Amino acid sequence: MSEAVEPVLEDSLERQNRFISENLRRIFLLVYRMVGNVADAQDLTQEVFIKALQRRDQLKDTDKAAHWLSRIATNTAIDFLRRHQRVVFCELDDMPEPADRAPEESPEARVLRAEREAFLEGGLERLTPRERAALVLRDVEGLSAEEVARHLACSKATVRSHIANARVKFRRYLSRRKA
Amino acid sequence: MTHPAETVLALYAGGDLGWWTRIGVERHVRQCGPCSRQVEEFRATCEMLQAEREALPPGLEWGEAAAAMKANVRLGLAAGQCVAEQPERMRHPWHAPALALPVLVVVVAGWLLQSLPPAVHTGLAPEGTGGALVLDAGPAGIGVERDGHGFRLLRPEAAESVEISVRGDSVRSRYVDGETGQVTISHVYAE
Questions:
Q1: Domain range for residue A151?
Q2: How far apart are the CA of A118 and the nearest CA of chain B, in angstroms?
Q3: Model pLDDT, residue B90
Q4: How far is it, in rounded angstroms, from Cα B187 to Cα A65?
Q5: 3-class DSSP state for residue B165?
Q6: Residue of higher predicted confidence among A114 and B153
Q7: How far apart are CA A142 and CA A29, in angstroms?
Q8: What is the CATH number of the domain that holds A162?
Q9: C or N terminus of chain A, fewer CB within 10 Å?
Q10: Distances (CA, A) of B32 to A172, B9, B120
Q11: Interface test with A, best of B3, B7, B47 (most A CBs within 10 A)
Q12: What pLDDT shows up at residue A96?
């Protein structure tokens, strides 16, 4: 199994482009949930793919390419959050107007979506980088606690502690917002 | 009634407790209204997060953003290759010998100079030999001098038997005192 080198990651430009296209949205959303703003998420997503493709010789197991990429993304986002300590979110009033390119979405739906998004990010902002990573990987990405522990290179007990603290903080935030 | 900690309820709601703890918490939650409500709130939070999984940030035009990111990735990879090519060139096989050769020449030259014997003139050297050491052995005694400066071990006055020998860069004298029979041997080395 470890003998086969992932054809997707071989030096062919076309294959590399396909690899990027297949994973770009997923990695962008993962990074965006963790850092909370579009500009940083775009920069970090690019960084993730550059790192991954520069180190493609390290990847021997073809089945683990997506998992490996997520792991690079998680670590890159955590490093970023640590460097910047906190993520700056814009106020709801300053939120960019939803794009006009989705005709199926009514203006009311777009406003609701923007509110929901701001609501979600407001909760994530209250978490530490590792709590945030643990919550995003467990509850948004749907990874098991064991997988999250592997991503974050820590024990399962530590991950459970991060997840529990994150859920408690998030629930309290939601309760306050509803009140 | 003892309520489970809020963090335990948070883990229970997400299915992250071990089976033994889970059974205990489940039994409690079934009987306790406040804890049951908390668990429901935790579950609603998890569902809300999951529902947002595929949602793009409001206002983001994905097609444009994706194209920009792909282009920047390609640019970053190309820049990385340019930087990486520089050390690659240094790894040519002839570089190591080319660097080692001058070092080797210096080492060999140093060793040869170190192993050469110093210039020794045993009593026959003319005056003013330009800084060379001159070993002097004569009836008055033995000594060494350079540019008119040096020292001499004089022959004792009572010495009857005198032997002076020169060997390489050293001179040796052997005196036997006629009165006491005491033998004095001296060596002078030019270094």
A1: 126-179
A2: 9
A3: 55
A4: 82
A5: strand
A6: B153
A7: 13
A8: 1.10.10.10
A9: C
A10: 20, 12, 109
A11: B7
A12: 43
Whether A108 is covered by a domain: the verdict is: no
- Decide which of A88, A115, A146 is a domain's last residue: A88
Using a CB–CB cutoff of 8 Å, tell me whether A103 touches chain B. no
**Do residues B54 and B60 make contact, with C-beta atoms less than 8 angstroms apart?**
no
Minimal CA separation from B93 to chain A, in Å = 23
Highest mean pLDDT, choosing among A57-71, A164-178, B21-35, B143-157 = B21-35
* Mean pLDDT computed over every residue of chain A: 79
CATH code, domain carrying A27: 1.10.1740.10
CB of A170 closer than 8 Å to CB of A135: yes
Nearest to A56 by CA among A102, A11, A3: A11
Among A88, A109, A136, the domain boundary falls at A88
Per-residue confidence (pLDDT) for residue A166, from 0 to 100: 93
Other C-beta atoms closer than 10 Å to the C-beta of A34 total 27
User: Could you tell me if residue A113 is inside a domain?
Assistant: no
What is the C-alpha to C-alpha distance for residues B48 and A67, in angstroms, rounded to an integer? Answer: 24
Q: B134-138 and B141-146 as β-strands: parallel, antiparallel, unpaired?
A: antiparallel
pTM here? 0.59
Total domain count, chain A: 2
pLDDT in the model for residue B126: 47
The shortest CB-CB distance from B73 to any of A50, A160, A167 is to: A50
CA distance B158 to A64: 101
Q: Is the CB of B56 less than 8 angstroms away from the CB of A29?
A: yes
Which residues, in sequence order, are bridge partners of residue B186?
Answer: B173
Q: Chain A: residue nearest B77 by CA?
A: A50
